[in-house]
Design goal:
Layout (H helix, E strand, L loop, with lengths): L23 E2 L18 E6 L3 H5 L7 H14 L5 E4 L1 H5 E3 L7 E4 L10 E4 L16 E5 L14 H16 L3 E6 L18 H19 L6 E7 L14 H6 L7 E7 L16 H15 L6 E5 L8 E2 L11 E2 L11 E8 L3 E8 L5 E8 L14 E5 L8 E6 L10 E2 L3 E2 L5 E2 L5 E2 L4 E5 L2 E6 L1
Parallel strand pairs: 1-17, 2-3, 2-11, 3-7, 4-6, 7-8, 8-9, 9-10
Antiparallel strand pairs: 5-6, 12-13, 14-15, 15-16, 16-24, 17-23, 18-19, 18-22, 18-24, 20-21
Bound molecules: 2-acetamido-2-deoxy-beta-D-glucopyranose (7 copies).
Length: 455
């Protein structure tokens, strides 16, 4: 591939720039590299913090139409609804109370905390899994309490897990893609959750026991459980021997005959639910475009961006949240979440410039390139001075269409548009579509912008 890629990086003062001088000349291969995976239309999916699932989806009397619209927009563009994983730290703390009338009761130690310290769910909780557009599929997070945990009223932990699984299986039915038993269990060694001899090996053994109990109770032999929900690079697990990773989990028996898929967690744009001014501004959308395209070139079958009602790094906030005085709305990351159904390859991988080739999976031919200019640009700087790179696109895209993702600056959340359009307060895409054309085989990409150039 390298020999077919001609990359000229000419750093010139702008005064010297001439029409026939380009910062980048792309000569993309006609076909993707051999063996490159084909990513699904819903390659880019979402993970919703367990405790906030009703906020995001609503219930039978109050469906969250805003969230449903945002998911519909993505289906309209990519052809599939994102998958929804309901899980996270709060899945570990959830307790099923069969006679609770409320769907969920959240108990906060401090009202401005990102997550409740405890939560109980009742049967009405399952209404949240009936509100997103039909065809949405779910991964459902279960607890992984140890035997006779006092938090679950002295009940046997495995019975609690099976009871939760039964509730979800009966309600979500065919839309249930998988269960997950426990979240980020590699951090549990020597905590209130597990003793100091908790290793990836003892984890897999106990996971198998819980998985078998669920399958026996639900009378199904199909691998139904997603295994291996580790945080990487893991906290306590980082120095552990054997190391907490997918490879070792498979080696100890979490293989394809018992596990449906394996999940690994890396933090979103920044850990601990994101940072204000970093995860909730336009820069996060550019990062999101780059990150999802990059992982698509690896052996990663699906990517789920995690979110929660008050989290900075969410793609959207589903309801007003009085605890932190924040309001319902689309966040910048959402603008970086439009994609799907292709083979992707890396064409340029520089510090502030990345270019991806997008191949049609059926014909294996190049149909688009995405150029991401990660150079910083703030809305406070004079717009007329915003620098750009000139990119000469591959010959057969020389008359291609250009769709631009831009904003006045990367440090703000306002004024973001993709091909001239924005998402309004109801989640509806507004504004006239602006499709530019490649001029003389060249496209300009400003600092802090991304473009999609397609046939
Ligand atoms: C729910 O069930 C528990 C355990 O049987 C019982 O102690 C509690 O009083 C019940 N609560 C209600 C509201 O019925
Ligand atoms: C349904 O949602 C509304 C609005 O959030 C809430 O007030 C109501 O308690 C919910 N219903 C149940 C059964 O929890
Ligand atoms: C792990 O530690 C716990 C508590 O200290 C103990 O009960 C259990 O037997 C130990 N398990 C193994 C396999 O050594
Ligand atoms: C898969 O793991 C199970 C135990 O979970 C084991 O019995 C089986 O031999 C393993 N299969 C392979 C191919 O390693
Ligand atoms: C939210 O606004 C109210 C009313 O202005 C104020 O009393 C409260 O301190 C604010 N809370 C936070 C977390 O900013
Ligand atoms: C891109 O560059 C990074 C940093 O140098 C490197 O770790 C990574 O392997 C590169 N990826 C590709 C596909 O070239
Ligand atoms: C851009 O904004 C960020 C965040 O406010 C700030 O840290 C940075 O110094 C600004 N840079 C310029 C060139 O204005």
């Amino acid at each position: 591939m390298a020999s077919r890629l001609l990359l000229l990086l000419l750093i010139l003062p702008s005064t010297l720039a001439r029409q026939d001088v380009f910062n980048l000349v792309l000569d993309a291969p006609e076909h993707p590299p051999a063996g490159q995976q084909v990513v699904d239309a819903n390659y880019q999916s979402y993970s919703i913090e367990f405790s906030y699932m009703q906020d995001y989806a609503g219930n039978n009397t109050n469906p969250n139409k805003f969230s449903a619209q945002l998911l519909q927009n993505l289906q309209d563009i990519s052809g599939a609804y994102p998958m929804i994983r309901a899980g996270g730290s709060t899945q570990n703390r959830a307790v099923f109370v069969p006679n609770q009338t409320e769907a969920v009761i959240l108990r906060f130690s401090h009202p401005t905390d990102d997550q409740p310290a405890g939560l109980t769910i009742g049967p009405a909780w399952m209404q949240a899994f009936q509100q997103f557009p039909e065809g949405t599929r779910y991964i459902y997070g279960l607890t992984f309490y140890d035997f006779n945990d006092t938090l679950i009223g002295g009940r046997n932990g495995i019975d609690e897990t099976v009871a939760e699984a039964e509730l979800a299986y009966g309600a979500i039915k065919d839309d249930l893609f998988a269960f997950e038993i426990g979240n980020e269990v590699d951090g549990w060694t020597c905590t209130s959750r597990r003793p100091c001899n908790w290793t990836v090996e003892t984890y897999v053994a106990q996971w198998q026991e819980y998985a078998a109990a669920i399958q026996e109770h639900l009378n199904t032999s199909a691998p139904l459980i997603q295994g291996c929900v580790f945080e990487a690079p893991s906290h306590i697990g980082f120095n552990a021997t054997p190391f907490w990773n997918v490879e070792n989990a498979v080696r100890f028996g979490m293989n394809a005959s018992v596990a449906k898929t394996l999940a690994d967690h890396d933090t979103n744009s920044i850990s601990c639910q994101g940072a204000a001014g970093v995860s909730d501004v336009f820069a996060a959308a550019l990062w999101g475009v780059d990150y999802v395209l990059y992982t698509a070139t690896l052996k990663v079958a699906r990517l789920y961006y995690h979110m929660g009602t008050p989290y900075r790094y969410s793609a959207w906030q589903p309801i007003n949240w009085p605890n932190t005085n924040t309001t319902r709305g689309v966040k910048p990351l959402y603008y970086g979440n439009f994609g799907g159904g292709k083979q992707i390859s890396v064409l340029v991988n520089e510090t502030t410039t990345t270019v991806y080739g997008v191949y049609n999976a059926r014909s294996s031919s190049l149909e688009a390139v995405v150029v991401v200019n990660l150079e910083g640009w703030n809305s406070t700087q004079p717009a007329a001075e915003r620098p750009s790179i000139s990119v000469r696109v591959p010959e057969h895209l020389a008359h291609g269409e250009v769709r631009r993702l831009t904003a006045p600056g990367v440090e703000i959340a306002e004024g973001i548009t993709f091909m001239g359009q924005y998402v309004d307060d109801e989640g509806i895409i507004r504004g006239d579509e602006v499709v530019e054309t490649v001029v003389d085989g060249v496209v300009q990409v400003g600092a802090g912008e991304a473009v999609l150039v397609s046939l």
